[in-house]
Fold this protein.
Amino acid sequence: MIHTYNYASVSEALQELKELGFSVDFNINNKEFETNPHDFEIVHVYRYEGDSSPDDEATVYGIRSKSRASRKGVFVSGYAANSESASARFLIGLSMKSRKSL
């Protein structure tokens, strides 16, 4: 089971993940996923819901490599990830794991 957390801002979620060692920006460094998406798993999910518009919504994912536990990073998807966007296709390829296993 994945635990979902709500924060006042995306930056709060990113800061907490950074403190937990999630240092890679997978939005920029996503070539690894294209070649081997099954080596990665989602271990944290943080949701940010904007006050004024659904377009302000975002989800921050804490992702780690299964084969290299020290390879941890974040992926931020906006509201459009609920559709057939590149972000949605990317996330479908990842497995989800409970936060307890960290």
